[in-house]
Amino acid sequence: MGTTPPSHAVREVNRPADTYRVTVAGRLDDHWADWLGGHTLVRNDDASTTLTLPVVDQAQLHGVLGRIRDLGADLLALDMIGEQPVCAPALDRPLHTERLTLRPATTYDAEPTWAYRRLDSVNEWLTGVPADLEEYRTLFAEPSRLAATVIVELADDSGGRVIGDFMLRLEDAWSQVEVVECAQDAQAELGWVLDPSHTGVGYATEAVRELLRYCFEELAVHRVVANCFLDNDASWRLMEKVGMRRETHAVSESLHRSGQWLDTVGYAVLAHEWKHPYARSSHEIKEKT
């Protein structure tokens, strides 16, 4: 049973945070970003990697440093570079569908999401899950990760049963320098984890469609992307079901904990394709005929 946090809890993400720049040896792949709290990884010319992270307290900082140590990466530098407000949630208010409520995550959601994320059947497709609940709480409370997390609850459950957590992360699109301001927050990335006891009845599809609507109608993004392992067919089939197109197929790109190198696929949908879904299919038919 999910716990419903006090209404003021969402505002915690607006507290000022100390900002640190962490530099490690080696060029870490983007797949490790979620494991390190959802922070952007910048690979440097000297074969090192830098991440900049706001932390509300030292426990969060030590949590990130502990995960870097677990990766076997040598810490080259740790610099405090100032204080800045923690980013606001990408979803700033609850959304409601026929059967679901989607709302911004708070630290209170760590325990109910841990309950299903630690399952082998779920963790199979994740970058990784900490060994215990306390470490997971620290990871979950990373400000940038918390701001990008959307909690999915059953709408007809008075206790607010948490059945999944989705990622909604705004990104700047690539642009030439003259139009860089126009590209800010022009793209969104989606990801999803659903409690396996609630799969097979369309909840994930319902939630993703509502987030796409929110992205295009309310955030006015130009493009929404998502990616997964090719072997995770339930995930990429969902992407196709909601109208996303496969854009990339990287062969043997990612090393799975099983020891196998797995393919990954990337999907996307543009604003005009989402608003006029038949325009793209008609165009594709003309190209084939």
Walk me through this protein's architecture.
There is one protein chain. By secondary structure, this protein is of the alpha+beta class. It has helices spanning 58-71, 110-117, 120-123, 133-140, 143-147, 203-218, 233-241, 271-275, 277-288, and strands at 16-25, 41-43, 48-55, 75-85, 95-96, 100-104, 149-154, 162-171, 187-194, 223-229, 245-255, 261-270. The protein folds into two domains: 11-85, ACT-like. Chain A, domain 2 (Alpha-Beta Plaits), CATH 3.30.70; 95-288, Gcn5-related N-acetyltransferase (GNAT) (Aminopeptidase, 3-Layer(aba) Sandwich), CATH 3.40.630. It is built from nine helices and twelve strands. An eight-stranded mixed β-sheet has the order 5-6-7-8-9-10-12-11, sandwiched between helices. It is globular, with a radius of gyration of 19 Å. It starts with 15 loop residues before the first strand and ends with a helix.
